[in-house]
């Protein structure tokens, strides 16, 4: 009798457990169907935030829009954006609007997670063309650039003056850069320190006219690319340039802030980084020197992605238009230091931040890294080889990259 | 045998049988909740991952919906014989992890055994303190320990300061991709693999397979030994407590030295524990992930990527979920094979 009761109890428990975990785990939902047409939309926004300032600014902007549109918006700062997005896409219940980096846009586009809405935007021609290209995959303009940054040369003022250099000595060519880096290298301080990744060193390849991908074809081992890396290697060889890891710094900002570098190549996030960690550092920002093929720099950008599985695509698009308007972007610039992705806001940014003019002035010469699917893995692999550029052979490194790139672009 | 006796034995047997059946039923009953939980949270996900590894799922919607294609062994093919970046990455990850296992497992086992023998000495004062101290790293969060190690092994960190006193110019540990074995070979004047450089296995030349762990990986190896030795010390300690003191005394009477006692008496009697420790060590080290994820993200120069970390990046960053799952199954296969091999070696042949 007792045993039967125990059996029943155990059986019931197991059944309960089973049902609790069952549910409708794998609902076969079609995509994009079921747009909500009436009533207020409830939008979920997931951002990869740089900090509290950004989270607050985006939340305020979203709330203001929600009030005027009669919808509701929840902004969440992701702790790991890629992972949380992946979970959302897999569950067919992704956030409606989210940040997408230009390096991941192709992989999300290729699995159909992203809505290609860029061409439907009212002010799509106001975005910088190179930013539009960064989010164009197979001819489809997927999403609106949120903001952008360019790389420029950041110089420690004190070291600059100590070496007897003046404003007239700001390098505008490779040779000048090499000679000021040499003059700025003293004792424990290295003239130029950057991280060893292609995301920084690649600017020299671009200044030589090289590019990883040209018209959809792999051109990683072109003579121009080799020329760019060979120039970097020559600076490394005479000690006027070192990689951040070799001076025990995490990145260029840290190397400059801790006095291990006189110059570095970074984007305008360095402003916030220096303000919070090295408030006493005096520095100036100038455009990168021009190479044999003219001036060039890299641009980094994120966009406002909208999920193909979102139920509120119309509302999401309106939210994005509000977020990318010229005035709103200038507000963001003030709040957390990003550069507006629309050309109409450029002058406003210059007035607000005269010291950062070089960043916005570089926009015209800026190139985005290629965004084809699989290219970001190739760049990761190239980065792992560039760490050994000081003793390596640029041609050999780039030949291997060319092989990988050809396989990736197939 | 009389009929009476026969009936008696039959009744006895059936009685016993019924009792045994009831016992078995009760046993199943009590383990049922645990079995259900394991089936739900381990068995089912494994089967789901197995499907993903042979599907073309790219991370959008459910992997079990009708429009996810079955691609057979394509993902495995790409990884093992594709010859592209996926193969090279897998080869690199396997090489890194192989060196890691080869160095961590024996080291942590020996260290754990010696620690256990040390704190098992009855003559030792403050045994409790030492046990706690040795066990402490095992219960500390691995992320916290990784962060501490990042500081210790920084370019101007404590480790380099200390070896600097002896006039040694320490490497920038976590930024140094050079293979330790290559460095040693370089000392004796072997700088290039010659013919070895021309033969590839999994997209990596044999010379690269022989690179040994990179300097950065060495720091992770030290970290692993530091964190796990305490756990295995406890296992050995439990085993040592089971060995009666008389055995040791008998050996002493027979004229065995302390070393001989350890080698010919203690270690053979610890064989079952040793098997457990080696198996746990093997499984744990082949799945190393958190140190890489929090500490190095696979850098420098991919010398700390491991199959587990590669599986994560392939899935979550490149949206190649099929490949990510396939890597996990290849890893599973490696672990099972090695455990079986090790079992064969350690089996008691007497």
From TrEMBL, chain A:
Entries under SUPFAM superfamilies matching the protein: Periplasmic binding protein-like II (SSF53850)
InterPro entries listed in its UniProt record: SBP, TonB_box_CS
Positions in coiled-coil regions: none
Signal peptide residues on this chain, from the entry's feature table: 1-20
Record's keyword terms, sorted: Signal, Transport
UniProt xrefs under PROSITE patterns: PROKAR_LIPOPROTEIN, TONB_DEPENDENT_REC_1
Recorded superkingdom: Bacteria
Keyword Transport among UniProt keywords: yes
Family from the record: Belongs to the bacterial solute-binding protein 1 family.
Name this protein carries in UniProt: Extracellular solute-binding protein
UniProtKB/TrEMBL annotation, chain B:
Source species, domain of life: Bacteria
Stretches assigned to the ABC transmembrane type-1 domain: 94-342
Coiled coil as UniProt keyword: no
Alphabetically ordered keywords of this record: Cell membrane, Membrane, Transmembrane, Transmembrane helix, Transport
Membrane association type: Multi-pass membrane protein
Pfam families membership: BPD_transp_1
Major site of localization recorded for this protein: membrane
Keyword Nucleotide-binding attached: no
Family affiliation: Belongs to the binding-protein-dependent transport system permease family.
Name of the molecule in the record: Sugar ABC transporter permease
Organism: Kineococcus endophyticus
């Amino acid at each position: 009798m007792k045993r039967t009761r125990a059996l029943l109890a155990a059986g019931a428990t197991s059944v309960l457990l089973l049902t609790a975990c069952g549910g409708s785990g794998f609902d076969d939902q079609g995509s994009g169907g079921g747009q909500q047409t009436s009533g207020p939309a409830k939008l979920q926004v997931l951002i990869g935030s740089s900090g509290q300032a950004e989270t607050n600014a985006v939340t305020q902007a979203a709330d203001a829009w929600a009030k005027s549109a009669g919808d509701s918006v929840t902004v969440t700062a992701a702790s790991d954006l890629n992972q949380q997005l992946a979970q959302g896409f897999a569950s067919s219940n992704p956030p409606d609007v989210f940040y997408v980096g230009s390096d991941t846009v192709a992989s999300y586009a290729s699995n159909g997670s992203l809505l290609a809405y860029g061409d439907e935007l009212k002010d799509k021609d106001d975005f910088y063309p190179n930013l539009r290209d960064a989010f164009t995959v197979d001819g489809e303009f997927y999403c609106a650039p949120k903001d952008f940054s360019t790389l420029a040369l950041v110089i420690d003022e004190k070291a600059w003056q100590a070496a007897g250099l003046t404003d007239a000595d700001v390098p505008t060519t490779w040779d000048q850069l090499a000679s000021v880096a040499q003059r700025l290298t003293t004792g424990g301080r290295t003239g130029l320190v950057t991280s060893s990744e292609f995301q920084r060193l690649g600017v020299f390849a671009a200044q030589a006219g090289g590019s990883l991908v040209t018209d959809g074809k792999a051109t990683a081992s072109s003579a121009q690319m080799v020329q760019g890396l060979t120039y970097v290697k020559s600076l490394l060889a005479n000690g006027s340039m070192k990689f951040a890891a070799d001076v025990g710094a995490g990145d260029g900002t840290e190397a400059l802030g801790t006095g291990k570098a006189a110059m570095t190549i970074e984007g305008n996030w360095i402003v916030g980084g220096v303000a919070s960690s090295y408030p006493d550092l005096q520095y100036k920002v100038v455009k990168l020197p021009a190479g044999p093929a003219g001036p060039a720099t890299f641009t980094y950008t994120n966009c406002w992605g909208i999920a193909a599985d979102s139920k509120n695509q119309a509302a999401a698009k309106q939210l994005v238009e509000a977020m990318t308007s010229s005035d709103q972007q200038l507000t963001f610039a003030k709040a957390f230091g990003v550069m507006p992705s629309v050309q109409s806001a450029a002058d406003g940014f210059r007035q607000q931040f005269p010291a950062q003019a070089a960043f916005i002035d570089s926009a015209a010469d800026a190139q985005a890294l290629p965004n084809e699917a699989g290219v970001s893995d190739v760049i990761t692999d190239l980065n792992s080889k560039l760490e050994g550029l000081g003793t390596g052979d640029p041609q050999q490194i780039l030949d291997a990259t060319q092989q990988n790139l050809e396989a990736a672009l197939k | 045998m009389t009929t009476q006796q026969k009936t008696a034995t039959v009744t006895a047997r059936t009685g016993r049988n019924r009792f045994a059946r009831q016992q078995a039923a009760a046993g199943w009953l009590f383990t049922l909740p645990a079995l259900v939980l394991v089936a739900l949270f381990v068995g089912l996900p494994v089967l789901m991952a197995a499907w993903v590894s042979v599907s073309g799922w790219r991370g959008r919607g459910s992997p079990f919906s009708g429009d996810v294609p079955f691609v057979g062994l394509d993902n495995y093919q790409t990884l093992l014989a594709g010859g592209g970046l996926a193969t090279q990455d897998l080869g690199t990850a396997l090489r890194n992890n192989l060196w890691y296992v080869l160095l961590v497992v024996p080291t942590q086992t020996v260290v754990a055994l010696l620690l256990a023998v040390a704190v098992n000495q009855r003559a030792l004062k403050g045994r409790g303190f030492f046990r706690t101290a040795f066990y402490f790293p095992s219960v500390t969060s691995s992320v916290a320990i990784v962060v501490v190690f990042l500081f210790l092994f920084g370019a101007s960190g404590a480790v380099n300061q200390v070896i600097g006193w002896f006039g040694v110019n320490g490497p920038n540990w976590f930024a140094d991709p050079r293979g330790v074995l290559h460095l040693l070979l370089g000392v004796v004047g072997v700088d290039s693999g010659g013919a070895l450089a021309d033969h590839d296995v999994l997209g990596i030349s044999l010379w690269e397979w022989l690179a040994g762990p990179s300097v950065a990986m060495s720091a992770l190896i030290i970290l692993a030994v530091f964190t796990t030795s305490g756990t295995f010390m406890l296992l050995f300690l439990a085993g040592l407590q089971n060995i009666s003191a008389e055995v040791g005394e008998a050996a002493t009477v027979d004229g065995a030295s302390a070393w001989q006692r350890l080698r010919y008496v203690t270690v053979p009697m610890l064989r079952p524990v040793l098997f457990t420790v080696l198996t746990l060590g093997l499984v744990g080290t082949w799945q190393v992930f958190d140190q890489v994820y929090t500490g190095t993200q696979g850098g420098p120069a991919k010398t700390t990527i491991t199959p587990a970390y590669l599986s994560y990046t392939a899935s979550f960053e490149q949206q190649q979920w099929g490949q990510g799952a396939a890597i996990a199954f290849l890893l599973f296969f490696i672990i099972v094979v090695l455990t079986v091999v090790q079992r064969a070696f350690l089996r008691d042949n007497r």
